[in-house]
Amino acid sequence: MAHGHKLEIFRGLWKFKSNTQKIWGVLAFLTFITAVEVGLGIAKPVIFTHNYFLGMKLLNWIFIILTIVKAYYIAWDFMHLRDEKSSLRRTIVWTPVFLVSYLIFIMLFEADYIYNVYHEGFIKWNF
Amino acid sequence: MDSTVTTGTEENVWGGGNQPLGVSYGKLMMWFFIVSDALTFSGFLAAYGFSRFKFADTWPIADEVFTHVPFFHGNYPMYYVAFMTFILIMSSVTMVLAVDAGHKMQRNKVTWYMFFTVIGGIIFVGSQAWEWKTFIKGDFGALETKGGRILQFVDANSGERLALRDFSKTIPSERVNHERNKGVWYYGETALPSYSLNEVVEGVKANSNVLIRTEVINEEGHKTLLTREETIEKLNDAKLVVEGANLIRNEYGSRLFGDFFFFITGFHGFHVVTGVLINLIIFFNVLLGTYEKRGHYEMVEKVGLYWHFVDLVWVFVFTFFYLV
Q1: Chain B CA closest to residue A87
Q2: How many CA atoms lie within 13 A of A72 on its CB side?
Q3: Model ipTM value
């Protein structure tokens, strides 16, 4: 870590002269994404709220994808995973990714089932 | 390390005596902690998603709940949370700059950057405390039915939300707040709401512009409004006046919404508070020259990892609590 930083982001599209400059560049990028998120959240364009992909609004897909992009740059440049050995990087990233995907899958699948039971079953809840 | 490795295994990567992953013991353990903590937060957020999917068509709409900005009146959805997010990212930046200065052994710079990081953390925690205060105090007030559903009120003419104080009648009654010092065996009760159920119900009946808004989300993604007749009919189900939020009920809708808000943002806020404390300790160590004497600033880097992790978690909490 002490020797050598990788000074480019976006696969080399944006190169920096020093580590400090790269930090400010990443900040600009993260701020831009947050601004886009808040803008979309307030405007809620109809194209994104009335179209669905895999049962979820397009707007929510956009939010989740932008969040993962933000998380990537925080982990890669602020937590300098970019400069670590790939073995360490993979250990840190893929373990939670695998476990969390599994958890999300079973939790949301089960929740959807319960939703349908409430919706179509003979349970009176609105009284 | 050199003196302990004598068996010639140093050529073998996993033979001991070296660092196969290229990081020191301390840094690796910090990463262990971060991964396990990330799993804890994922558990909370997945549980939140579970409850939300379960009540998909009655869940509160976040940008109708978090509309407040300190010192400003009016309806400003999300601006304040966006500001909090920016503050946290900013303090993450000063933290990386401190780590960077540490690598170059620039003690003065590390001191200043650590100082700014601590200040950013304090601003964030303060903002969160204010958010909690606003959330707990509530704004409009609502009624709760026998089945635990929340009924909110809307002005039929303008379509704006109505607060209980806008239409409730004042009906004198004998009911007073029961306090510990007046009771047998020193039992008290929680504070009474500003209006009794009777006052709210009579207020709705007297003002023909008041409509009830239920929790159900319609096709357009808005909460369902009842007609005037349905409103009067629905009043028969009302059982309680709810103002603000606590761990049992809240005026915003589903009870779980309040619980998850307190639990997830609270757990994250606790992380920020410990982060600020640890950053302060490191700040004083830098001032005292501890790391100058040690010859390296790796401690700043390890604490930095934790601080970035807190930022990382907030990015997810922001998305799943306020945006989605």
Answers
A1: B21
A2: 10
A3: 0.89
